[in-house]
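---------- Forwarded message ----------

FYI, see the TPO protein record below. Original note from H. follows.
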Amino acid sequence: SPPGLFLLTSFLLHMEDGRANPTRLVCDNRLIQKYIAEAKDMEKRAGQCQTLPALSCPAVLPLVDLSFQQWKSKSNETKRREILCDLALLVGAVAGAQGQVTQECGTRQLSQLHRHANSFLLLLQTFSWETGPWEPGCSPRSMEQTHITSIFLTYRQLVQGKLRFFFRDLSVDLCK
């Protein structure tokens, strides 16, 4: 889809020596606003799909709420790792839901969500950090949900919350 291609293109345009340079993504606030709008649009379109079934095997979704005071006290690397854990769990939940949904509208929306969430996961994994690359194995706070629309809600909240604040925090150092 064009939005997924846009994210991938943004990512590829900011590669330097095999590592991502997040400067434009972080410094151009219009980009994160575009991703928030896309997340809202995906959530809305999923809600418009006719008769989405409940998931027989619940999706395990990250709890993406945040306390602003706690968030401010974390290092950028800690924030990045937390978001990566959330994204990894979310991508897994989307993949699991895709295997359970046969309705065309639902599968199309889940496929788009998978591409977007996975693109952010890949992007954040390749940001250059002094502490080294991300390694899976985290266990974020989570909840089980049987409603497919909860997956889209979680993604929107993650992009609108932690990811947006993370990019804003990075912009303090990168956008001088």
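H. also flagged this: The helical segments are 2-13, 23-27, 29-48, 68-73, 76-98, 104-126, 148-174.
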